[in-house]
Amino acid sequence: MKAAAAEGGGPCRADGDDSLYPIAVLIDELRNEDVQPPLESLATVEETVVRDKAVESLRKISQEHSPVDLEVHFEPLVKRLASGDWFTSRTSACGLFSVCYPRVSSTVKAEIRQHFRTLCSDDTPMVRRAAASKLGEFAKVLELDYIKSDIISLFTALASDEQDSVRLLAVEACVSIATLLPQEDLETLVMPTLRQAAEDKSWRVRYMVADKFSELQKAVGPEITKNDLVPAFQNLLKDCEAEVRAAAANKVKEFCENLPEDNREQIIMTHILPCVKELVSDTNQHVKSALASVIMGLSTILGKDNTIEHLLPLFLAQLKDECPEVRLNIISNLDCVNEVIGIRQLSQSLLPAIVELAEDAKWRVRLAIIEYMPLLAGQLGVEFFDEKLNTLCMAWLIDHVYAIREAATCNLMKLVEKFGAEWAQNTIVPKVLGMANDPNYLHRMTTLFCINALSEACGQDITTKQMLPVVLKMSNDQVANVRFNVAKSLQKIGPVLDSNALQAEVKPVLEKLATDTDMDVKYFAQEAISATRAVFALHAAAPSPPVLDANFEKQMEQQAVCFH
Amino acid sequence: MCVPFSADIISTVEFNYSGDLLATGDKGGRVVIFQHEQESKNRPHLRGEYNVYSTFQSHEPEFDYLKSLEIEEKINKIRWLPQQNAAHFLLSTNDKTIKLWKISERDKRAEGYNLKDEDGRLRDPFRITSLRVPVLMPMDLMVEASPRRIFANAHTYHINSISVNSDHETYLSADDLRINLWHLEITDRSFNIVDIKPANMEELTEVITAAECHPHQCNVFVYSSSKGTIRLCDMRAAALCDRHSKFFEEPEDPSSRSFFSEIISSISDVKFSHSGRYMMTRDYLSVKVWDLNMENRPVETYQVHEYLRSKLCSLYENDCIFDKFECCWNGSDSAIMTGSYNNFFRMFDRNTRRDITLEASRESSKPRATLKPRKVSTGGKRKKDEISVDSLDFNKKILHTAWHPKDNVIAVAATNNLYIFQDKIN
């Protein structure tokens, strides 16, 4: 397959390289030695996705080569790409060094190392970026001596590059390199560079350090963590740029968890906690929000007494924060605190916070708190819920925004699953059914939607005795939307009802609705009728078959004929 | 006297990094690219000419339905990307949308398809009795332009500048109140790095007029304002660069204060020198060179057309006082050039402090002829060959000029004509 055919263009093709992407994928599937030349050309095109896919395919093919073939076919390809005129081929070459290095002879290995060195100091930033991003991967396949002699100097150079975008990629490489070196070498070979990166003038580099902090912590080990990383982490938490503070705040829990056990508590209390306290009142809302999502996790690390004395005030402060996202993040992580001190400590502050979120002007905030309600209800217990939260849940059912009403309905269903049918019967069913008389037709429809959601959880008894009469009564509603939703409801709750009810009460109503003046009501009634016919068949197979009305069956057949 | 066809009015001129290509954009949304022909062996004493290489329609007129406003297709700026392979890339922008164009050459095409005839008609599969492999045949050189990326919907106000960063990965775009940072590969997101919109729009006093990235330092950029100030920002210091790192402003001369002082101090263009050590700003009457290390005054000031100072009132009435002139450096930063009225343009030698006024018009420039310097007479007595201020044609304005990055070749746009002048080789 020649490279020319792989380009596959006609005379007027203007869409260019995007069309090469499927070809690159196809070649991947073929995995044939003959396929290498076209991949080489594809690895030099300017469209990044095509180049990346070609490089990926070449990497897979390299695994299929024998060591001899690697030296004869593959490594020359890599050499050609690395010496290419345009930066595109040189960036692709960076991704291929690590796959061919392990299995070639030592002379060839030396050549490969030389090429990589050259690319690390290439003129164009794009190539240096590609080299920096592959530095870690390449280091992993090198022998330890070469890591120390070659990689470290390349790493230091890239980490001091004039381009911000190159330096920040070196931070990622730092993690891999630190993992590969023995502990005693880290202090001299890696730490100076890492310290420099944590204080880099560019906030983007500091951000990368914060983002990779947990990996760095694991790579350098407990001693260096205590001496170097703890002060570095403190500085990142106090950084002047909010993006960096937020990235560091996100890592607080993980960092604390991974501290060595012997002085974990002491380090946290002396060094980390003061910074965390500052962050609670940070000016930037994203920082506070990031902190709120992890701060609760500290309670399991610090234990009951420290939590009550030091952390509890912070949780309460964030529960009252002006930014709704902060409050939501606290509420969503209550289970950690529950394990340690029990939620009762918080409930006094928790309730006003929940109520405020439940009535927030922005509907998406209201939606978020509804979604946490089943979790909270489970943790706070049924009495607390009935006392304080029940009214909220009912109020949501008549919210102005449909998405809230829908979520509220779903919420009720989850609560019934948690607390049981009897609780439902006593507390929420009467209120739901009461809405059926509301002057607003949207609220009357909400009753029907609730019934749809609750019938299965509540069971046949409640559905037949309490819900069904209400539904049937609404079939006479003035508003057509309500009437056709009656038909839909009847179809939904049909399987829960017993056959007598279906026969005696549901059927006549559906038949009446099938002759309604409104088109949609008629349509949904017909749909419901054919659906209940299936339910009948189900009942017919049951041990004690019900007595079928002969007329009814004929009517059914007639309906069926009409449709076909 | 013929009125130029308005869609042909050239709105931007830009050489690429090697100087081989010259791009112009016009009011009709078209981009025309000229290529430098290699010197011919027969006449080595003449440099090659610039001939049309490619023409394409970059932007079309659009309509913003929400605001009931037309979006003009006029190309405000073109910026070339550094060359990365055999094809050429440029960014072109109108008021709202930036597009990345790829200009590539095609000199081969595949012939001998099995299913298609040479003219593209499908062949009847049942008539095909044998298979052949298509081959590549040479063809006449065809230059194709294709849009590779479209960066849209990021600017509420009119885009006035775009500038490519030295990291070859990002670029910035500036409108009246905001500057955004884009990644060349990502079209659905951009980062806002400067926002000078006040909370209450009634408090608005100054707008952004131009912005440029530093040629070598990937973290530095400047933007100029309508109040005659320039702010230099460091993207390393913070994610949002609302606070400047350096603030350049020349204190006002109280003796020349007038009703028009603020209007004529508005900076219409800002350009870094190639060395990265200096920057040049153009306001209505002058060009100033600033040393980046000194914020309180420029190191050099050149008067472009000081004789207009007494005419500001009438220039305000015919709106000419709001004309936005551009300026440019030569390749070695030893000279600067900017345009004026009556198809005049001015060049200043920074070392000798000599300046010259030249005219770009058909009557005064025959091909291969040397341009004659022009002079505007300011006093009462007008010498022969001079032109008086009142006879200047303010409809013939040279707003856009460009200087070849290495050679002494300049491109001057006079309404809808493009003039290319070269240094005589002795």
UniProtKB/TrEMBL annotation, chain A:
Presence of keyword Iron-sulfur:
no
InterPro entries for the chain: 2AA_helical, ARM-like, ARM-type_fold, HEAT, HEAT_type_2, PP2A/SF3B1-like_HEAT, PP2A_Regulatory_Subunit_A
Q: What is one GO cellular-component annotation here?
A: cytosol
The alphabetized UniProt keywords are:
Repeat
Residue spans of the HEAT repeats: 112-150, 151-189, 190-228, 229-266, 272-310, 311-349, 350-388, 428-466, 467-505
MF annotations from Gene Ontology: protein phosphatase regulator activity
Domain of life, per lineage: Eukaryota
Species assigned in the record: Scophthalmus maximus (Turbot)
Classification via PANTHER family: PROTEIN PHOSPHATASE 2 (FORMERLY 2A), REGULATORY SUBUNIT A, BETA ISOFORM-RELATED, SERINE/THREONINE-PROTEIN PHOSPHATASE PP2A 65 KDA REGULATORY SUBUNIT
* Residue ranges annotated for the Phosphatase 2A Regulatory Subunit A helical domain, each copy included: 106-216
Q: Which Gene3D superfamilies does the protein's record reference?
A: Leucine-rich Repeat Variant
Q: What is this protein called?
A: Protein phosphatase 2, regulatory subunit A, beta b
Domain annotation Phosphatase PP2A regulatory subunit A/Splicing factor 3B subunit 1-like HEAT repeat: ranges = 222-303
What does the sequence similarity comment in the record state about its family? Belongs to the phosphatase 2A regulatory subunit A family.
From TrEMBL, chain B:
Any signal peptide, and if so, which residues? none
Asked whether the UniProt record includes Repeat among its keywords, one would answer yes
| Region of interest: Disordered | 360-383
Q: Which GO terms describe its cellular component?
A: protein phosphatase type 2A complex
Entry's InterPro entries? PP2A_PR55 (IPR000009), PP2A_PR55_CS (IPR018067), WD40/YVTN_repeat-like_dom_sf (IPR015943), WD40_repeat_dom_sf (IPR036322), WD40_rpt (IPR001680)
* Family per similarity comment: Belongs to the phosphatase 2A regulatory subunit B family.
The entry's protein name is Serine/threonine-protein phosphatase 2A 55 kDa regulatory subunit B
Protein's organism: Scophthalmus maximus
